[in-house]
Amino acid sequence: MGEMDGLCVTDCTRCPALVDSRSQIVNGTGPDDADLVFVGEGPGAQEDSQGEPFVGRSGSVLDDELLAAGLEREAVRITNCVRCRPPENRDPTADELENCRGYLLQEIDLVDPEVIVTLGKVPTEHLLGRSVAVTNEAGSIEEVRLGERSRRVLICVHPAATLYDRSQRDTFESAIRTAADLAGVDDSGSGQTRLDGF
Question: Domain spanning 2-182: which superfamily?
Answer without folding.
Answer: Uracil-DNA glycosylase-like domain (3.40.470.10)
